[in-house]
Structures are given as structure tokens and as C-alpha cells.
């Protein structure tokens, strides 16, 4: 009977050279990776050095004194612009305030001129009242003179009398009290019961009138 041995033979055992082959391969890969990283780092360092050199070269070409002069000029221009703005703002405020004062004064003294025109009329009326002579003709003459003074004051104050007899009825300037039979064309003013007045183009009081009725 033939016996077999469980002990492996020398031919089944790996040789020393075969055992060391994987370790040598790993070492080579690591060395290659390190070399690549070193090359990239060197390239980056060279690029940074190149950038720094370019910056240094650019700075060498800069005229610091010229830059300072330009900065001072810009600051002076900004200061002048601010002062101009401040003056313009103050002037606008002064104009606004003067405008408000002028409007307030215009409202307060709007009739000052017209009141001055009426002062001679007041003087004549007071003189008429002080006259105790009892002369009717003289009194009438004084009243007529006073009326002329009043008309003159109205004219200076641009107050115009409305006495529209024979004119077409105007509802903006006349107030009709009644319609009466008349020979005139319908809606013609026949009589004025009370005269009206305008100030410039504004009606102070419409004239009270009667108008011709339609035939």
C-alpha cells in the first residue's frame, strides 16, 4: 500500500522573488505619484513667482507722485462739488422762503392799492357832511364830484360797471328779475334795476335786469 504525504513539496512553496514582486510594484506607484505631485507643486510655485514678478514689474512702472496728485485733484473736485451743492440747496431754500413771504404779503395787502384810491372819496364825503350851509345846489355839486372820484378809483382798481341796457342777456354777467313785453328782440335787456360790477374779468356783482319776453 502506497502512502501519500500531506507536507507540501518545495515546488509548491512560492519563491522569495515571487513574494517580493507585489511590494516592489506598490513602491513604484507611490514613487510615481509623489513625483507627479512634486512636479505640479513646482509648476504652481513657478506660476506664483511669475505673477509676483509681473506685479512687481507693474508697480515699478507706477508713478506714485502722479497717483497722489490725481487723488488730491479728485478730492478737491469732490469738495468743490459738495460746496456748490450746499450753496444751491441754501439758495433754493431762501427762494422758497421768500416766495412764501411774498404770497403772505400779497394776501395781507391785496387791497392796499385800491384802498388808497378810495381815500379821496372818503375825504369828499366827510367834507360834505361837515358842510352846514344848507345849499342844495352846492351839496349836489359835491356829490357829483365825489361820484367822479369814485369812478376814477374804480378805473384805477380795474373795477368796471355793468349797465347792459340793449345788450343780449348774459347769464354769467346779468341776473334777470322778470321778462316784460317789449319791442326789442327776445332776451334783450330792457332795463337795469341795479348795476353790476366786474373786477378785471371776474364778476363782483351781476346786474339786475329785466329782459324782453318772446313775442
UniProtKB/TrEMBL annotation:
Give the Pfam families listed for this entry: GrpE
Q: Which UniProt keywords apply?
A: Chaperone, Coiled coil, Cytoplasm, Stress response
One GO term describing the cellular component: cytosol
Which biological process, per GO, is one annotated for this protein?
protein folding
Per the record, where are the segments of Polar residues compositional bias? 1-28
Q: Which residues form a coiled coil?
A: 57-88
Q: Where in the cell is it found?
A: Cytoplasm
Superkingdom, natural source: Bacteria
Kindly list the GO molecular function terms attached to this UniProt entry. Answer: adenyl-nucleotide exchange factor activity; protein homodimerization activity; protein-folding chaperone binding; unfolded protein binding
Q: Where is this region: Disordered?
A: 1-52
Which Gene3D superfamilies did the record assign?
3.90.20.20, Head domain of nucleotide exchange factor GrpE
Q: Where is the composition biased (Low complexity)?
A: 29-52
Function noted in UniProt: Participates actively in the response to hyperosmotic and heat shock by preventing the aggregation of stress-denatured proteins, in association with DnaK and GrpE. It is the nucleotide exchange factor for DnaK and may function as a thermosensor. Unfolded proteins bind initially to DnaJ; upon interaction with the DnaJ-bound protein, DnaK hydrolyzes its bound ATP, resulting in the formation of a stable complex. GrpE releases ADP from DnaK; ATP binding to DnaK triggers the release of the substrate protein, thus completing the reaction cycle.
The record, for HAMAP family, names:
GrpE
Q: How does it assemble?
A: Homodimer.
Query: Which family, according to UniProt?
Result: Belongs to the GrpE family.
PANTHER family (alphabetical): GRPE PROTEIN (PTHR21237), GRPE PROTEIN HOMOLOG, MITOCHONDRIAL (PTHR21237:SF23)
> By what name is this protein known?
Protein GrpE
Q: Show the taxonomic lineage.
A: Bacteria, Pseudomonadati, Pseudomonadota, Betaproteobacteria, Burkholderiales
